[in-house]
């Protein structure tokens, strides 16, 4: 049985292609949502009717204290998640996930603003309540990115709960942007999908960094440790030379210099037993220390110790252990939840779109439209969080 440390593993090609396929799938979903909600008259009418119904329901079903809290809940969630992420980062010293989370926050928010202000335009079909383009939602993106960053820096045993609460709070934040009259349902859903794509890219960056740091001596602290060891060895070698001088003096038996100085004649040099070898001869000072000791214990007693020696610690930054290794946190939300939410949202939207009379706020069709929008937001959040949590399972 070998006690040697396992060699560093490089990331398999499958571990790179499959996350990129997930990112492409989320990007395709954003493209489909943008085409339906912006470029088609049916999509625009359903989106605007859901917004009108949400505004009408504010005063009918929700008390004023709830509406006042809903105005500030996204900011409160963002602040609380950011503080908790900082605490977990400094307690666990997960600097690489923290940097990846920061890059994810910047990238997702930049993507949202670029799509909204530069790339996408909303044609005017005479049915929209808000003239300018609001797709995707910047409010939802800002809060969701901080929640995903919290998931990246969460300890392994808390990832399942963090994913569940992150999905729930992100979905609630997206729904509140509709209830507050800030955005349409498609805006919030697309923002959550964009955040999920950038979250998968952040996980992929963490896995690349962990695979690189798992190589022996790759971490800066290992380089510094090797330099210190070389300096100490050189200093000890010079000290031994000064203590030895040019004479062939053999220190007395039991002295520190005799036991640890490999440069003394007869000390630390392999050779046969006999009178000609001062280590094992029956004459001289060296005989007192080695004559009664078995050969396996002299002159290299450290050779008999098993590897790794006591106190040996693997590189704490070697987190990547390949697919199927390491802590595998449960994935939340589950695939059945995503499929159920998507089927319900699409089913309600298609039913309302195929009705002969248009949906009007206060009617059954209007309420079905806004419910479909809320279900779509929850489905987008579930799909995004599942995609990120799935690739976090192989990280320790």
Automatic annotation (TrEMBL):
Residues 97-203 form the Phosphatidic acid phosphatase type 2/haloperoxidase domain. Pfam families: PAP2. The chain crosses the membrane at residues 20-41, 61-88, 95-115, 135-153, 165-182, 188-209, 338-358, 364-385. Keywords: Membrane, Transmembrane, Transmembrane helix. Coiled coil: none annotated. Gene3D superfamilies: Phosphatidic acid phosphatase type 2/haloperoxidase. Residues 235-246 have a biased composition (Basic and acidic residues). It comes from the Bacteria. This is Phosphatase PAP2 family protein.
């Amino acid at each position: 049985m070998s006690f040697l440390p396992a060699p560093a593993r490089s990331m398999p090609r499958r571990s790179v292609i499959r996350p990129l396929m997930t990112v492409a799938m989320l990007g395709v979903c954003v493209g489909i949502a943008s085409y339906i909600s912006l470029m088609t008259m049916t999509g625009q009418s359903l989106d605007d009717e859901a917004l009108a119904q949400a505004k009408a329901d504010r005063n009918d079903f929700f008390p004023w204290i709830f509406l006042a809290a809903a105005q500030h809940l996204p900011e409160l969630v963002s602040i609380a998640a950011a503080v908790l992420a900082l605490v977990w980062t400094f307690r666990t010293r997960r600097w690489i996930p923290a940097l990846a989370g920061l890059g994810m926050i910047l990238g997702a928010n930049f993507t949202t603003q670029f799509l909204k202000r530069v790339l996408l335009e909303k044609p005017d079909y005479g049915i929209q309540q808000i003239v300018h383009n609001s797709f995707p939602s910047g409010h939802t993106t800002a809060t969701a990115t901080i929640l995903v960053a919290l998931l990246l820096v969460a300890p392994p045993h808390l990832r399942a709960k963090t994913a569940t609460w992150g999905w729930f709070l992100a979905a609630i934040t997206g729904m509140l942007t509709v209830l507050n009259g800030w955005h349409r349902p498609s805006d919030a859903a697309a923002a959550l999908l964009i955040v999920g794509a950038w979250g998968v890219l952040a996980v992929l960056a963490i896995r690349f960094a962990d695979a690189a740091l798992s190589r022996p001596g790759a971490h800066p602290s290992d380089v510094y440790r090797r330099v210190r060891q070389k300096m100490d060895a050189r200093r000890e070698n010079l000290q031994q030379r000064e203590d030895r001088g040019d004479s062939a003096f053999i220190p007395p038996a039991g002295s520190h210099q005799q036991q640890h100085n490999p440069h003394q004649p007869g000390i630390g040099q392999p050779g046969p037993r006999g009178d000609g070898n001062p280590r094992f001869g029956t004459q001289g000072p060296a005989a007192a220390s080695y004559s009664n000791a078995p050969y396996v214990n002299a002159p290299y007693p450290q050779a008999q110790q098993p590897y790794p020696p006591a106190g040996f610690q693997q590189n704490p930054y070697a987190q990547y252990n390949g697919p199927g290794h390491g802590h595998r946190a449960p994935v939340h939300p589950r695939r059945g939840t995503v499929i159920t939410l998507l089927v319900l949202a699409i089913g309600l939207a298609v039913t309302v779109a195929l009705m002969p009379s248009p949906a009007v706020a206060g009617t059954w069709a209007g309420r079905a439209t806004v419910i479909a929008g809320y279900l779509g937001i929850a489905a987008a959040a579930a799909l995004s969080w599942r995609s990120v949590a799935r690739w976090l399972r192989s990280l320790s």
